[in-house]
Amino acid sequence: MKATFMYGAGDVRIETVPDPIIQEPTDAIVRTVRACICGSDLHPYHSLPASGIGTPMGHELIGVVEEVGSQVTAVAKGDFVIAPFAFSDNTCVFCREGLNTACIHGGWYGTPETGGLQAELARIPQANGSLVRVAGVDPDTADESLLASLLTLSDVYLTGYHAAHMAQLKPGQTVAVIGDGAVGLSAVLAAKQLGAERIILMGRHQDRTSLGVQFGATDVVAERGAEGIQRVLDLTNGEGAHAVLEAVGHLPAYEQAYGIVRPGGIISRVGVPQYEEAPIGFGSLFGKNARLAGGPAPVRAYLEPAIEQVLDGTINPGKVFDRTVTLDEVPAGYAAMNTREALKVMVKLA
Amino acid sequence: MKATFMYGAGDVRIETVPDPIIQEPTDAIVRTVRACICGSDLHPYHSLPASGIGTPMGHELIGVVEEVGSQVTAVAKGDFVIAPFAFSDNTCVFCREGLNTACIHGGWYGTPETGGLQAELARIPQANGSLVRVAGVDPDTADESLLASLLTLSDVYLTGYHAAHMAQLKPGQTVAVIGDGAVGLSAVLAAKQLGAERIILMGRHQDRTSLGVQFGATDVVAERGAEGIQRVLDLTNGEGAHAVLEAVGHLPAYEQAYGIVRPGGIISRVGVPQYEEAPIGFGSLFGKNARLAGGPAPVRAYLEPAIEQVLDGTINPGKVFDRTVTLDEVPAGYAAMNTREALKVMVKLA
């Protein structure tokens, strides 16, 4: 099969490798229908040291089950499924609490063992927990916009949803979303779903913030840093936002977050932090009792109700996709996301 | 009157200064019955640069109202009152949300404007919000242990309570408390009140941890650092604690906290951070969706029910006091707390 590998910053290649096979009785093999490129894939695209060994790429897909191991009962050959970006058994103590990204039998794609999902075929570990069937949809005949929205449930929309969920939003509150990438826009849509009254989107790319307004943003702040902080304070009677959803992952976005969070409010991060140390002392979080939450989204825990919302048209998160490429064109897809020509790139398998 | 001033690290002096007077119609003057020395007073005791101008000290007292300004209606001359360690109007938007330490008309004691509370008399700003009457108690005849417990409601017990409250404890959960100082022991007592099933107290002073066990600790871990982390993991099936109440304020205590917090759990800090930057990236908080909460305790918001609990004997937080000094002996009280000869020192006014 063909699959995507990264050999260093900016060096993405499509290669032909052996088809994955069932290794454990809990595995399934899925034939990819749609995959996509994640904002987090751009972090290694900027910084991965050059290597003679390629890193398998991709962690989002919808597809059709080709084969299942002897212990797989939740899905069967021919099922149309969504694969959350982390695999999990969905039965361990953490999964039962809705924190599938801490599953004791779980893990991440994009390792030599599990491979990446920007590929024609994928081996899905712990398939009983890691795949969710979408009943009543035939991927060969389904509307492109439906497929796009279902694909966002693999990661991007439900990562935005996780930010809003962990912020413990209450109806009527003011939310600020930092970042107008696909996760930030998804966080806007999720905040709206969860009852936020005012949603301030901080981003400076007008084509993107326009989609944010479609998704429910009531205000757009293009300024950054001290100026952006002041704008948000001005918009909130000097108080700041009850919840700040940080969908970037770079330190300046976090610094902006504690500048605009209301005393007693919550900063909820879903952009993978590209830093380890950051201010959390009296002058940033402690003095105003600001809280910090977030992490890798336990997409699996949110998946079934979100599928319903997509199928019944309540939400249409697939609008974040603005470009579609073939698997052979994936390197160009990375380049387009990197230069911000594309917001989010879908990969359509043949 | 006599009052306490600090002129630099280790240099605490009792001086005679003019009696405070009503400056604003919202002020009250209170005659101190009992004050005390706070663990947070030891931070400047270690590090305050020497100066020719003394810093007024103290932020905890119970006392009797001597005089009130023309707009003060909540208390009257002769009332026996508790003063929370931060003053607040208790009516602003943040006070109404229970975050009195963010009061837009509030502030801290120990500044040249407001003075300190380790003094014979104190000017209390925003007295309608900042003082709470304790009905039915005559401080001249009340039991010493009752006065001690009421005094803890000015800060130390309700600071421990804030840690437990912000950790959103659910009955049956496992809590780890870092620090066997008076706040840590108070956090144990509060966690027990809030239904924690297992309370692991991390501290190495056996006389203190013994009181912690009286307050409800089920396990004591004397080890620190990597060894202490491993002990807590061993005690929790490798999972860590649902809530970690950090009652120290130094960076190693925070590092211990993220080492022992369970995936999805909460670190709640009430020790005033003696650091600004600390790890919060993938390897500390983000990867396991650990949350961070805490800050200066809005004691005022918790005060009335806590007074009831002290009066009816449900809680006896005053046991944290193990030494009583006169105002003139306050410098010796600081020294005794600094060398850990005393856990917490009460100041008994003549």
From TrEMBL, chains A, B:
Cofactor names: Zn(2+)
Keywords: Metal-binding, Oxidoreductase, Zinc
Metal-binding recorded as keyword: yes
PROSITE patterns for this protein: ADH_ZINC
Positions of the Enoyl reductase (ER) domain: 8-347
Pfam family, one: ADH_zinc_N
Family classification: Belongs to the zinc-containing alcohol dehydrogenase family.
PANTHER family for this protein: DEHYDROGENASE, ZINC-CONTAINING, PUTATIVE (AFU_ORTHOLOGUE AFUA_2G02810)-RELATED (PTHR42813:SF2), ZINC-TYPE ALCOHOL DEHYDROGENASE-LIKE (PTHR42813)
Protein name: Threonine dehydrogenase-like Zn-dependent dehydrogenase
